[in-house]
Amino acid sequence: MDFIVADTYEDMSRKAADVIAGCLATEPDCVLGLATGSTPIGLYADLVQDCAEGRISFADATTFNLDEYRGLDPQHDQSYRYFMQQNLFDHVDVDVARTHVPDGANPDAEAACAAYEEAIAQAGGIDLQLLGLGHNGHIGFNEPCDHFPVDTHVVELTESTIQANSRLFDSVDEVPREAYTMGIGTIMRARRILVVASGEDKAQIVRDAFFGPVTPEVPASVLQLHPDVTVIVDAKAGALCA
Ligand code: F6R
Q1: How many other C-beta atoms are found inside a 10 Å radius of the C-beta of residue 54?
Q2: What is the pTM of this model?
Q3: Among 46, 117, 143, 234, which one carries the catalytic annotation?
Q4: Which residue among the candidates 138, 142, 208, 234 is catalytic per the annotation?
Q5: How many other CB atoms sit within 10 Å of the CB of residue 108?
Q6: Which of 12, 45, 132, 190 might form a disulfide with 6, Cβ 3.0–4.6 angstroms?
Q7: Which value, in Å, is the radius of gyration of the alpha carbons in the chain?
């Protein structure tokens, strides 16, 4: 594992964007796994700028996002599809037909999960998977539990997640109760993994996930077993790992 402590959020974002830019430069038809959340917003902005200035191109790339709310229309401003369009896809030269987010609108959950795994396999697997890190060590929507879920599956959101997310919706009743997420196996099958984390509120979980025991109680700890992981944190998130 490469563990890199950047000075600031901006520095973390630039360094992480460089990893993705390097992948696009050396393998223009690469398959990228992408994440939503607040942490990658800066690195997506850097990639948009790199693309505008002609340094990189997404024209031949394929993307798969980690997760999506179940039952939310892709046009909804809280859907992860919407997030990706706003923060990256609408501003780069990616072929939107080759961008994949689990289909939150498909009422057949089992079929939607199987189709997602199949689409990843058909694309030849994920070359580089970007991950953020939840405060409890979750990756995707894989929350702490007693085992590592393997493939793309449906999760029930916990009451605390529903309450926390309700600030982004008109009312708590509108918050989806379920989500689709790549499984831990889906993530671990990626050939390379890039994790970003920032802020002092992530310092403890960064230490637990990357320097503590491997346990499904801290889902991200499984990444210690992956042969090619780069973790880039800002100084605040890396403060307990000196
Ligand atoms: C996002 C995702 C989540 C986030 C995590 C960290 O697609 O799967 O696991 O990466 O919740 O979120 P932020 O970056 O907002 O702290």
Answers
A1: 7
A2: 0.97
A3: 143
A4: 138
A5: 10
A6: 12
A7: 17
